[in-house]
Amino acid sequence: MIEHSTLLKLARDYAARKASEHSSLKAIVLSGSVARGEPPLGDAVDLDILLISDYPPETAHEIVRLSDYVFVDAVHIPTSAYADRKAIRTHHFTGSALNDALILYDPRHYFDILQAAVRAPYNRADHIYARARSAYNAAMQVFDHISQYREDPAPDPLSFDLLHELRQTLYLAAHTLLPLVSQTQSQSVGARKLMVRFEAAARELNPELYSQFLESLGVHDVDPKTVEGLLNEWVALYKAASQRGSDDLVIHPFKRGYYDRGFRALIAEGHAINTLWLLEETLCACARRLDPLPETWINFCRLTHKSSGAEFSERVRVAESFLSEIDHTLNQWADQESVER
After folding, report:
1. What is the CA radius of gyration of the chain?
2. pTM of this structure
3. 166 vs 162, 183, 192, CA distance in Å?
4. Contacts of 245 (CB under 8 A, 6+ apart)
């Protein structure tokens, strides 16, 4: 297993290089699983690094390979994004990312002061509830784009954009529960562990939600034994996408081993079904510009009940019920914690 100290050294070395290249940087911080001290899933790691400055470059994203299974995933962030500190505390992603972050470079204590402002009231019940509501509201905004297909089937063949909006709805809805569970756990989670963490949170708060998530995604009746075969097909399609070239950072060539090892580790731990949200997200990115569509993608859509407009309508109807139950669960938690809603 890669030592945590080794990963921190790699992050600090990268930060030192970036600081020497860009004197305008105000701070460089490490976020994500390594900052939280979580063990590497499948011994494959991404170092999530935020490069903060007043005027970031036009190319906001940078992916740097450090080894076969370790890479830097760096994003340039303008300081203007962090101007409203009250809003940061109650944002479903930004608040957690800054709360968990480790400082790599901060010569004028810009980030030190910013993080202190976020952390001071971070675990107050009203702020926890606000972050959960922020995720729920974001999920509802995306769901609005597909809600028209509850009764009227979407046009065949289904567009990749519609399927993405369904997955994004579920992704954001899953994040509504994470702030509400045990405060000894981080309220952030990477995409590889999303369904595992959501299953655990649902078990604590409302077990019905996990089965509704699976049915919304269309994987409720997938045999876990079939997932390893799906993964082998996924590898072939990912390799082909890398050779073809793609500007989609979701399927950057450096990420294949990171995904593959993570998927196989989850399968070995008995979480085969919990790979399927991210497996679909990355499979979709590999297939979306191919004509004709690859059989791997067509078969996956059949397997997950999303191969026609009528089937998609069923997924949307289930997702609507899922979101309603999420809303009910949030309200129950707020009442238990005496939070005004």
Report:
1. 20
2. 0.95
3. 6, 29, 18
4. none
At position 93, the amino acid (one-letter code) is F
pLDDT in tens, 47-105: 999 999 999 998 899 999 998 889 999 999 999 999 999 899 999 999 999 999 999 99
Best CA proximity match to 133, nearest among 89, 199, 192, 165: 89
Distance CA 104, CA 95 (A): 18
For 318-331, give one letter per residue: b (16+ CB within 10 A) or e: bbbebbebbbebbe
Cis (ω within 30 of 0) for the bond into 292?
yes
> What are the pLDDT digits (tens) for 119-154?
988 999 999 999 999 999 999 999 999 999 999 999
Return the amino acid letter for 124: R
Strand, coil or helix: 94: helix
